[in-house]
Amino acid sequence: MLASEGHVILVVDDETAVRNVLGAMLTCLGYIPLLASGGAEGVDMLRAQEGGVAAAVLDVRMPGMDGPATMDALRQHAPDLPCVFVSGETGKYTVNELLARGASDVLGKPVAMDRLGHALAAAAGAVGF
């Protein structure tokens, strides 16, 4: 049994193809992906899971609620939720700023599956999921 087996990971990315690839990677890593197309939808999905989400993988740049705002909103409901950012360009945020805001890791797109797995394993070790 994989250490990740059965853990739900919320993926929030406005690009359908990226969201689906991340979901497929998470499935291969033994996680259960929960896919959202934007920040508000991601927050609604997290609330509907009633504490069942182990971590979130978030795009930084999205229309409406961007990644950092999404992380803040998610943490209003799950204060210790590990959040890993995945982005082709961080826009107005530097990697150090995202880490200082509480991100578990910041990965560049395209992300390799093993790198995503390592980031989530590190986040799991930090919070014990």
From TrEMBL:
The keyword Ligase does not apply. This is Response regulatory domain-containing protein. It comes from Gemmata massiliana. SMART domains: REC. Keywords: Phosphoprotein. One of its GO terms (biological process) is phosphorelay signal transduction system. Residues 8-124 form the Response regulatory domain. Transmembrane segments: none annotated. The lineage of its organism: Bacteria, Pseudomonadati, Planctomycetota, Planctomycetia, Gemmatales. The modification 4-aspartylphosphate is found at residue 59. PANTHER family: RESPONSE REGULATORY DOMAIN-CONTAINING PROTEIN, STRESS RESPONSE REGULATOR PROTEIN 1. InterPro entries: Bact_response_regulator, CheY-like_superfamily, Sig_transdc_resp-reg_receiver. Gene3D superfamilies: 3.40.50.2300.
